[in-house]
Write a structure and sequence with these properties.
The chain is of the alpha/beta class. It folds into 2 domains: 301 residues, Carbon-nitrogen hydrolase (Nitrilase/N-carbamoyl-D-aminoacid amidohydrolase, 4-Layer Sandwich); 233 residues, HUPs (Rossmann fold, 3-Layer(aba) Sandwich), CATH 3.40.50.620. The protein is built from 20 helices and 20 strands. Strands 6-7-5-4-3-2-1-14 form an 8-stranded mixed β-sheet. Strands 13-12-11-10-9-8-15 form a 7-stranded mixed β-sheet. A 5-stranded parallel β-sheet has the order 18-17-16-19-20. About 2% of the residues have low confidence.
Length: 645
């Protein structure tokens, strides 16, 4: 439960049609197994105590009474167990028959939720037996249990108020206005669906689409448990296609015709954070119709959970900004390059500029910026020779990066200009009284600011724009010289994290169809990341960024889960240990996590005055886009939490 994680299970038992005694035994057995696995939310299929395909047997009082007796046995089986369990059965009440989900916990029947939409079309004949459930809740008695009955019912954990469960049944998901919409607007973070959806060709894809879209639209978890092969009879075949989704992502999916149990770790704390971030989620009171969401009178049933830590089996990729699937990664790279190029294209068109000026170092960022600029000029129908690529060697420049910068510019058809800044920087040091043998921050930043001055003045001279090369990871860490490489007239890389920069350059190398360009790009990819502001040692780069500030793959991971997901430091640390357990020890992760938070807070003043640049993903640090953060915010509570780890 710590950090908002809860293990959910969707269970498809192999039942026997019209045999509640047998079915209750199987349900209790599978229930115990799921509890042993640590599941706190366990969802069984629709009408699983009797079977969905009983037909006119649903009109037999004996079947209904036996189903009620077996429900009490299943409820008793939950005694001493904290898991919230949902089981389907037919339930007679006030002279009518309802298709209901019974919500059980620790020996109690917390509530009965009736199905709202009753299908009577194609192979479905539910209207022959069942009455649509009322949203309004009322008291009922089952055996010795006094409980509530009604569709508008939410179940919340008193110990973890972010966990709120709503329930709907099968067809409720397939209609234009599902009950779960109202549940979510009323506060449900997780929806359970007890289903008996038979299999026909292609139906599984549509079902998956519905579950994914429902969880995305409601920013919720969605646990869908469907009837399996034990239900199959006469013309209908059931496959037990269980699904667990979270905010548009399928976390677990059953193999059809296996009658298995699937598990997934839902993060309901993250869901609440995302809802708070999206100001349009609940709409305004005046915008919600009188029969929807917060205007509906919901019963709220509380229960208790101990706060033991959920054993997380959910996987977290090391690179959240980079798709793991190769084809998706290629498509993502092409899309990002287009966003960058079209953003720059608009700026060039608006300003009437015909020339682009950028400094090239032979490093990854300036390489990507030059590739994007070349693509932009192609879109504009301008000659690439109007791109002025400027190499400005100084004290830290190595032959390898210098040669790569020159080869890259020539191969792309840009105009290459070399301006050695050693003499001007040395004179500047003399003017301000800086000892050139003292390799401090003044020594480094003096070079960066000189380069920016050269580029700005060349842009004025040529009537063009200075194209910024710095990426989002550097901006997050403040790893840029204020009014040096921090500044440009349009920054094409400001929305691209360092881990993605590498894949963009690799994608360009793989798809350019130019042997020499591919060779130079691959050598750039093989070069250590460095600002090259300190003199090399024996001709080799002496200043490696990741040795100083930490691995960018860690910092990008921290950035994503802190900004995009709203995780506190201890939760970021927890998932980082899972993601990087094969790469870094816990001490290393914690060391660089502390560095990340210190730098992220202290360097906001640089992000507060960023040049324009295109947003390309769901995380951005521009003060005009996603990040409205005060430059003088205090990092105390974040750092104090880190010190307790």
């Amino acid at each position: 439960m710590r950090h908002g994680f809860i293990k959910a299970a969707a269970v498809t038992p192999k039942i026997k049609v019209a045999d509640p005694v047998y079915n209750a035994g199987v349900i209790c057995e599978r229930l115990a197994q799921a509890c042993e696995k640590g599941a706190r939310l366990i969802v069984f299929p629709e009408l699983c105590l009797t079977g969905y395909t009983c037909g006119d047997l649903f009109l037999q009082p004996l079947l209904l009474e036996e189903a009620k007796r077996q429900l009490l046995k299943v409820a008793e089986a939950t005694s001493g167990k904290e898991a919230l369990v949902l089981v389907g059965l037919p339930f007679a009440c006030d002279g009518k028959l309802y298709n209901v989900a019974a919500v059980l916990q620790d020996g109690r029947i917390l509530g009965l939720v009736p199905k709202t939409h009753i299908p009577t079309y194609a192979e479905f004949y539910e209207g022959r037996y069942f009455t649509a459930g009322s949203r309004a809740c009322r008291d009922i008695v089952i055996g010795d249990h006094s409980t509530r009955f009604g569709a508008d019912m939410l179940f919340f954990c008193r110990d973890m108020p972010d966990f709120v469960l709503g329930c709907e049944i099968c067809e409720d998901l397939w209609v234009a206005d599902p009950p779960s919409t109202g549940h979510a607007l009323a506060g449900a973070t997780v929806i359970a669906n007890l289903s008996a959806s038979n299999e026909t060709v292609g139906k599984d894809e549509y079902r998956e689409l519905l579950v994914k879209s429902a969880s995305a639209r409601m920013i919720s978890g969605y646990v869908y448990a469907s009837a399996g092969e034990g239900e199959s009879t006469q013309d209908l075949v059931f496959g037990g296609h269980d699904l667990i989704a979270e905010n548009g992502t399928i976390l677990a999916q059953a193999k059809k015709f296996q009658s298995e149990t699937i598990y997934a770790d839902l993060d309901f704390q993250r869901l609440q954070t995302e809802r708070r971030r999206m100001s349009t989620f609940a709409g305004g009171e005046e915008k919600v119709s009188s029969d929807r969401g917060s205007h509906r009178e919901y019963d709220r049933i509380g229960f208790r959970w101990s706060l033991e830590e959920t054993r997380i089996e959910r996987t977290f990729g090391c690179m959240p900004f980079v798709p793991a699937d190769e084809e998706k990664r290629k498509a993502r790279c092409e899309e990002i390059l287009s966003i960058q190029a079209f953003g720059l294209k608009k700026r060039m068109e608006h300003t009437g500029g015909k020339t682009a000026v950028l400094g090239i170092s032979g490093g990854l960022d300036s390489t990507l910026a030059l590739l994007v600029t070349a693509r932009t000029f192609d879109l504009l129908g301008l000659e690439r020779s109007n791109i002025l690529a400027v190499t400005m060697p100084c004290f830290g420049t190595t032959d390898r990066t210098y040669d790569n910068a020159c080869r890259l510019a020539k191969t792309l058809g840009a105009e290459l200009t070399e301006i050695d800044i050693r003499e001007s920087v040395t004179l500047h040091f003399k003017d301000i009284g800086q000892d050139p043998n003292k390799h401090d921050v003044t020594y480094e930043n003096g070079q960066a600011r000189e380069r920016t001055q050269v580029l700005m003045d060349l842009a004025n001279l040529r009537g063009g724009l200075v194209i910024g090369t710095g990426d989002m990871s550097e901006l997050a860490l403040g790893w840029a010289t204020y009014n040096g490489d921090h500044m440009s007239m349009y920054g094409v890389n400001v929305g691209v994290p360092k881990t993605l920069v590498r894949h963009l350059v690799q994608y360009y190398a793989d798809t350019c169809g130019h042997r020499e360009l591919k060779e130079v790009l691959e050598d750039v990819l093989d070069t250590p990341v460095s600002p090259e502001l300190l003199p090399p040692v024996d001709g080799v780069i002496a200043q490696k960024t990741e040795d100083l500030v930490g691995p960018y793959e860690l910092h990008d991971f921290f950035l994503y889960y802190m900004l995009r997901c709203g995780f506190p430091p201890d939760k970021v640390y927890r998932v980082a240990k899972l993601a990087f357990r094969e790469l870094y020890d816990e001490g290393t992760i914690l060391k660089w996590l502390k560095t990340f938070y210190k730098r992220f807070f202290s360097q906001q003043f640089k992000r507060s005055c960023l040049p324009d640049g295109p947003k390309v993903g769901s995380v951005a640090v521009s003060p005009r886009g996603d990040l409205r953060m005060p430059s003088d915010a205090c990092a105390r509570i974040w750092l104090e939490q880190l010190e307790t780890l």
